[in-house]
Design a protein that fits this description.
CATH class: Mainly Alpha
Structural class: mainly alpha
Strand order of the largest sheet: 1-2
Strand content: under 5%
Distance between the termini: 11 Å
Shape: elongated
Bound molecules: protoporphyrin IX containing FE
Number of domains: 1
Helix content: 55-70%
Number of helices: 4
């Protein structure tokens, strides 16, 4: 299997980026919803730290993924069945990246405005002053961006199913 993307399909690196992110999000989204329901305890703090560590890792991973996309451009779009199809596909992919980055950045800002110092793996950083109003705003952004992500992923999967079973253009082969 080739490392770089070709015009027809994703290479090994592109496939790994896609499926590792998929698995990480599959765990991280329900984990976040579970976390908010827990009573305050040392166990909750530990679980929150894991959520933050995984979230910051997803943030770096997405940045590396976008850099990789510049180095090795994505395969060309599958032939259109209807007008505007390519644009819809591109918009879906673009917004998926936007929602992942919004979730991670808002989570980071919420914690930092709470006055906490975060471990960014390569360094630690925190704001000098807290601001609980902004912390609440960024938390709302965190929650709504998660709903946006869930909507976009649902559309993304429905599109793949439509391509596979109705248009029969074997789009899945590009990423498997
Ligand atoms: C958390 C869930 C998922 C996310 C966030 C996600 C995200 C993405 C993104 C951002 C791209 C565009 C990659 C690029 O070229 O930059 C993509 C492509 C693709 N994804 Fe997903 N994906 C998810 C789940 C899935 C699942 C479950 C399937 C299969 C059932 C799938 C099938 C595909 C296919 C076939 C493409 C290539 C589409 C094309 O070239 O037109 N994805 N995905
Ligand atoms: C893609 C990565 C991430 C996903 C999918 C995600 C998802 C979620 C979800 C679904 C919730 C529950 C929201 C609710 O219903 O109230 C949540 C809560 C939370 N997230 Fe994230 N998150 C991610 C990254 C981060 C990061 C990077 C941070 C901080 C650095 C963070 C900090 C938090 C905190 C602190 C809570 C719980 C807040 C509380 O109950 O006080 N998250 N997350």
């Amino acid at each position: 299997m080739r490392i770089f993307n070709s015009t027809k399909e994703y290479g090994l690196v592109g496939k790994l980026f896609h499926w590792i992110t998929f698995l990480a999000l599959l765990a991280q989204v329900p984990f976040g919803f579970y976390l908010v329901g827990l009573e305050f305890s040392s166990e909750r703090i530990e679980l929150e730290n894991i959520h933050i560590f995984v979230g910051i890792t997803i943030f770096y991973f997405t940045l590396f993924r976008l850099i990789w996309k510049l180095i090795s451009p994505s395969p060309s779009e599958t032939k259109s069945v209807f007008k505007g199809q390519v644009l819809i596909g591109k918009a879906n992919h673009f917004l998926l990246y936007v929602s992942i980055l919004t979730i991670t950045i808002s989570g980071i800002l919420k914690k930092m405005y709470m006055g906490e110092t975060l471990n960014f793996i390569f360094f630690k950083y925190g704001f000098k002053k807290d601001n609980f109003i902004l912390a609440d705003v960024y938390y709302d952004v965190h929650v709504y961006a998660n709903y946006l992500l869930l909507t976009l992923v649902t559309l993304h999967i429905l599109a793949v199913i439509t391509h596979h079973f109705i248009f029969k253009d074997n789009i899945l082969k590009k990423i498997l």
